[in-house]
From TrEMBL:
Residues 53-353 form the Alginate lyase domain. Keywords: Signal. It comes from Shewanella ulleungensis. This is Alginate lyase 2 domain-containing protein. Residues 1-25 form the signal peptide.
């Protein structure tokens, strides 16, 4: 059973912290709007996502059943060739599309829908695929990356890599058990392992709050992966707010831009987050950790030296209708988008280097 721990994070170092004086609300809103307009000016509102963004090394899963005979019973999957088809680049006008006003790449996901194996949470999410051959399976090393400490590193498509994005979370579910941290949250970026998730970047906002929190989880992985659990790392806001708490004073609003950069070089993962990017009032926080080593204070953690890894980016909705699991059973309704039972994320910048 996976659990969450809030222990001391002795292996995670904050190596950079830049905090400028707070802006008055009017100046900040004006500069944020100007920066969003600048990003929008580089995008076309009339083009498909793959015509605005380099998606040549990505496939996408969507929260609907696949209609093709070869994938009946599975979630919809669009491979890199289909996603980037020159004549008919892929768009789903409800779950994956270009915003007609901003040109942003929008990914949307309901609280309950068909999803991938081993997950109860619906998603509209890109998955990096490093091989240029669509017939190579996702699990093949050529489609994934490893860290330098991996003894089989020569088989992989890359050693490390970098994923950068500037995003706005437009919406998160307005219902769910607020005592469970995944409720009212969405994962906007990941490093996924073969059976684990070394990194998940969360945005979470409670319905009555005007600002939400940003944090990331490291998954402690023992030899017995059924005993794995997550350790959260706060960026802005709080990780465990409930309805009785006040909104985080240093939080991020729905629709407000923030940036993340995930850089894995050799064995070291460096994470850089920017709040209020493109303004005089930007704030930067940077974290670093060695993925080849277990987390100090967690003696059963074996690290990720032998793991297969890949990047993901999108709207991985953390709300589901389950109630039993002490962490992941968020008891969210699924009464449709009109009722607010969904998640939506807009990408204004997305870059993969591998």
């Amino acid at each position: 059973m996976r659990r969450l721990t809030y222990g001391k994070l002795t292996s995670i170092s904050i190596i950079g912290l830049t905090l400028l004086p707070l802006a008055n609300a009017a100046d900040l809103e004006n500069e944020l709007a100007q920066y969003k307009s600048q990003l929008s000016a580089t995008l076309s509102q009339q083009k498909a996502p793959s015509q605005n963004f380099d998606l040549t090394k990505w496939k996408i899963n969507l929260p609907v059943p696949d209609h093709r005979p070869s994938r009946l019973g599975d979630v919809m999957e669009i491979n890199a060739t289909q996603l980037n088809d020159v004549a008919r680049p892929f768009t789903d006008y409800f779950w994956f599309y270009t915003d007609p006003l901003t040109g942003a790449m929008v990914m949307k996901s309901p609280n309950t829908a068909p999803t991938t194996a081993n997950s109860k949470n619906a998603r509209s999410e890109l998955r990096a695929m490093l091989s240029s051959n669509d017939n190579v399976t996702p699990s093949d090393p050529s489609n994934n990356f490893a860290i330098a400490a991996n003894p089989q590193r020569a088989k992989y498509g890359a050693i490390g890599g970098q994923l950068s994005a500037t995003v706005a979370v437009d919406w998160v579910s307005t219902n769910g058990d607020d005592s469970k941290f995944p409720s009212h949250s969405v994962v906007v970026g990941q490093i996924h392992g073969a059976k684990t998730e070394p990194l998940k970047i969360y945005y979470r906002k409670l319905p009555a709050h005007d600002t939400g929190s940003l944090f990331w989880n490291y998954e402690v992985t023992p030899k017995d992966v059924s005993q794995r659990y997550d350790v959260p790392h706060l960026i802005w806001g709080e990780t465990n707010l409930t309805a009785k708490d006040l909104a985080p004073k240093d939080g991020i609003k729905l629709g407000e831009l923030f940036s993340y950069d995930i850089h894995v070089e050799q064995n070291i993962m460096t994470l850089t987050f920017i709040k209020h990017p493109g303004t005089r009032f930007s704030q930067t926080k940077t974290f670093t950790t060695d993925l080849s080593k277990g987390l100090p204070g967690h003696p059963k953690d074996v690290g990720f030296a032998n793991d297969t890894m890949y990047f993901k980016a999108g709207a991985y909705n953390q709300c589901n209708q389950g109630k039993e699991h002490p962490i992941w059973g968020t008891a969210c309704n699924n009464d449709g988008v009109e009722a607010g039972d969904y998640t939506q994320v807009s990408f204004y910048r997305l870059s993969l280097k591998q």
